[in-house]
Design goal:
five-stranded mixed β-sheet; rod-shaped; 563 residues; 18 helices
Length: 563
């Protein structure tokens, strides 16, 4: 009969634990039973061979019993080990019948109730009390008692004596004790297995989190040895956690990040915790970047000094965003001041210009006076143009947001810049990308592109190649925490001389320029126009190689944001 597909209460392969000890699992018990059955069958077979000539009937019965035992064992091995089936109750009952039959045959041929081998009944009862649930296992001692009763009272025509009933009581007592103990162990094993599974699940989840979070996690024991570091921590610190685990790590950390080293040492020596702090990490190639870090310490009974765990994160993008927001706030303040000053200066300047013109046209003025008057008028016009630029800078506001094709805006701005006096025949402007629609103010977007193109042309002062690319941006391209959804990217790249180092750090500030005669308001207007669209502008410039401005805009605005 094939094993039942329904598993028993305790899955195969599980182990029962009690008071720190482990009982064999189901397959191990079955293998022991099968091995014992084979030894017993071989012993009976040898005994039958000895009396073959004197008692052929006995030898014939022995042969039948041994063949049945071999058949049951071979089938059990094929079903459990070769096919991998989980033994069910019916399968185990059949195996129990084979074992009881073999023991009954041995008892029959060795004296019946006087046979010393009747103790094998107890072995079989105990074994199947461990293999079967309590209710199903109760069948085995009943069958054993019936077989023993039949053997003693029918075959040998004996009378049930006190010793016989004592043997039956032993059968039942052995099953009772073993069955109750097995049920308790089975329940405890199931609970332990459940706890083990839950613990493994929690560990897997924790391991998955530690491997995928964007923060580095590092644990150092009280002796300064590396106890744990996750993959992100390895990348941030350029440390091979596999080879460094269990080795002193503080000296390397002191070179990589003095602030992280100091926080770990303070935790080990004084148990001090760092909640929010910042530091720098330096790589082997000299590149440095800021990190935010926090530490916590915990003590174990086996350690005299506490272990310390540090969590640290690359905050380069956060710092860049903070700088961008501060830059936008400064520009807003300068814009308000520029508007106020422009209005205050423009009216007196107009009065001065008008008065000087009238004096120059007076009949009493000599040539020197007229020359000076013309100089004053010319410089007044120059100041008036400068004030107009100040007012343009202060009036950068998005008037209305409508769907705009950014590539069409780029083409229009490129046509305008090509007609500028500073744009010579050697200037080449390439437009790449596809039609890209976003909600924006077309006039402001036009000013952004035109200012960037004209800035590249004027900075080069000669032959230059400018490439403008539009398209959708991937979220991974944006700095972390930018908050721009569905980003659109505008990239203006040139192969000019690059931005001087002394100008690069103050590039978007008003009146900062690296070009002689420039007002330094073009890029400041770009910054304010991008901020008006809730976007970000980033710059990457290398001396002698060129400059790239990358701007990210949100593709869509809600009605509340547009208002």
């Amino acid at each position: 009969m094939p094993p039942e597909s329904t598993p028993t209460e305790r899955p195969s392969g599980s182990r029962l634990r009690f008071s720190g000890r482990t009982l064999p699992d189901q397959r191990t018990l079955l293998s022991w039973l099968f091995a014992g059955r084979m030894l017993l069958a071989v012993a009976i077979l040898l005994g039958g061979a000895i009396v073959w000539t004197t008692e052929p009937a006995v030898s014939f019965i022995v042969s039948i019993v041994v063949i049945l035992a071999f058949t049951a064992t071979a089938y059990g091995y094929w079903a459990v080990w070769l096919r991998g089936q989980v033994p069910g109750e019916v399968f185990l009952w059949c195996q129990a019948l084979a074992d009881l039959g073999l023991v009954t045959a041995l008892v029959h041929f060795t004296g019946g109730s006087n046979s010393v081998f009747s103790a094998f009944y107890v072995v079989v009862i105990v074994a199947y009390a461990l293999l079967l649930p309590f209710g199903a296992g109760a069948v085995v001692p009943v069958i054993a008692s019936v077989a023993y009763f039949a053997e003693v009272n029918l075959t040998h025509r004996g009378v049930a004596e006190l010793g016989f009933w004592g043997q039956i009581i032993v059968f039942l007592a052995a099953f009772g004790v073993t069955g109750v103990l097995s049920a308790s162990l089975r329940q405890a094993g199931a609970e332990r297995e459940s706890l083990r599974t839950e613990l493994q699940r929690v560990r897997l989840e924790a391991d998955d989190i530690l491997r995928n979070i964007r923060s580095g996690v590092l644990t150092v024991d009280g002796s300064g040895r590396l106890a744990f570091i996750n993959p992100m921590g390895e990348r941030l610190l350029q440390i091979d956690g596999g080879s460094m685990t269990g080795l002193p790590i503080l000296d390397q950390l002191k070179l990589r990040s003095p602030e992280l080293w100091a926080a770990l040492v303070a935790g080990i020596r004084h148990g001090r915790k760092v909640t929010r702090s910042e530091g720098m990490v330096q790589h082997n190639d000299g590149r440095m970047f800021p990190i935010g870090l926090s530490t916590t310490s915990f003590e174990r009974d086996s350690d005299s000094l506490p272990s310390v765990t540090a969590i640290f994160t690359d905050i380069s993008d956060l710092k860049r965003l903070q700088e961008l927001h501060l830059r936008a706030e400064r520009l807003e303040a300068v814009a308000a001041l520029s508007a106020s000053l422009a209005h205050e200066i423009r009216n007196p300047l107009a009065s001065i210009r008008s008065s000087v013109e009238q004096l120059a046209r007076s009949a009493r003025s000599d040539p020197d006076e007229r020359f000076l008057a013309q100089l004053i008028v010319r410089e007044s016009d120059r100041l008036s143009r400068l004030l107009s630029e100040f007012l343009d800078f202060s009036r950068v506001r998005a008037s209305r947001f409508v769907p705009v094709d950014l590539q069409a805006v780029v083409m229009a701005a490129a046509r305008l810049v090509r007609e500028h006096p500073d744009c010579g025949a050697e200037t080449e402007i390439k437009i790449l990308g596809s039609r890209t629609v976003l909600d924006g103010d077309e006039d402001l977007l036009h000013r952004v592109v035109a200012n960037l193109l004209l800035n590249a042309v004027q900075a080069a002062g000669g032959r230059v190649e400018i490439t403008v690319t539009t398209g959708l941006a991937k979220p991974a391209e944006l700095p972390t925490g930018s908050g721009i959804e569905n980003p659109v990217r505008l990239e203006v790249r040139d192969n000019g001389p690059g931005i001087p180092e002394d100008v690069r750090s103050r590039l978007f500030e008003p009146f900062v320029t690296g070009r002689s005669g420039g007002t330094g308001l073009g890029l400041a207007i770009v910054q304010r126009a991008v901020e008006a669209h809730r976007g970000l502008v980033l710059v990457d410039s290398r001396t002698g190689i060129g400059t790239t401005f990358t701007i990210f805009f949100p593709a869509r605005w809600s009605a509340e944001e547009a208002a």
